[in-house]
């Protein structure tokens, strides 16, 4: 039962008749590689939160100097403070409030500008502090600190 080795299937072409899939040197990678590489970069982008990488160091709300232990901010004082426009003089703000509970460490809010901070516990919620910022003797804004 000797059969010749030249058997070829009608549905499958012989090796010699298939076109070569090899690329010539110097050709760019196929779209498959580009899609695979882009998908890997997208997965890494989803897994890494860049906001945590470039987040500035949190500012400590620890009193540097206690000024007036009994100082609290009433609802009416808070309401009047919220109506004061930014860049008003420090004296305008001090006409509304008494001495602060404490002075917090200065912070750099904008490049090369240090901001002084004063803290006032709220009369109706002593665990929450109202923090006033001053830059160069002007009212620069406010913040709330809730974790007391």
Word description of this protein:
- The chain has a domain at 65-145: Beta-lactamase Inhibitory Protein, Chain:B, domain 1.
- A 5-stranded antiparallel beta sheet has the order 1-2-3-4-5, with no helix packed on it.
- The longest helix has 17 residues, at 31-47.
- 10% of the residues are buried.
- It is of the alpha+beta class.
- It has helices at residues 31-47, 50-53, 75-82, 90-94, and strands spanning 65-66, 102-110, 113-122, 125-135, 138-145.
- The N and C termini lie far apart (96 Å).
- Strand 4 and strand 5 (138-145) form a beta hairpin.
- 23% of the residues lie in helices and 27% in strands.
- It has 4 helices and 5 strands; from the N terminus they run H-H-E-H-H-E-E-E-E.
- The mean pLDDT is 81.
**Low-confidence parts, pLDDT < 50 over ≥5 residues?**
none
Query: How are strands sequenced across the largest beta sheet?
Result: 1-2-3-4-5
The biggest sheet, with number of strands, parallel, antiparallel or mixed sense and barrel status, is: 5 strands, antiparallel
Residue share in β-strands: 25-35%
CATH class of the domain at 65-145: Alpha Beta
Query: CATH architecture of the domain at 65-145, please?
Result: 2-Layer Sandwich
Judging from the principal axes of the Cα atoms, what is the shape? elongated
Q: Can you give the mean pLDDT?
A: 81
Q: List the total number of helices.
A: 4
Structural class label: alpha+beta
The termini sit apart by 96 Å
Q: Write down the Rg.
A: 35 Å
Strands, count = 5
| Quaternary structure of the protein | single chain
H/E series, N to C? HHEHHEEEE
* CATH topology tier name of the domain at 65-145: Beta-lactamase Inhibitory Protein, Chain:B, domain 1
The residue fraction in helices comes out at 10-25%
């Amino acid at each position: 039962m000797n059969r010749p080795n030249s058997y070829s299937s009608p549905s499958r072409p012989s090796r010699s008749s298939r076109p070569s899939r090899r690329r010539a040197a110097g050709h760019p990678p196929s779209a498959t590689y580009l899609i695979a590489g882009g998908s890997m970069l997208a997965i890494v982008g989803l897994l890494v939160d860049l906001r945590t990488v470039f987040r500035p160091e949190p500012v400590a709300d620890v009193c540097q100097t206690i000024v007036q232990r009994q100082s609290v901010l009433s609802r009416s004082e808070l309401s009047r403070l919220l109506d004061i426009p930014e860049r008003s003089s420090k004296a305008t703000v001090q006409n509304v409030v008494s001495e602060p509970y404490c002075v917090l460490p200065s912070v750099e809010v904008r490049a090369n500008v240090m901001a002084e901070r004063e803290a006032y516990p709220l009369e109706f919620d002593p665990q929450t502090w109202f923090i006033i910022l001053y830059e160069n003797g002007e009212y620069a804004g406010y913040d709330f600190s809730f974790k007391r």
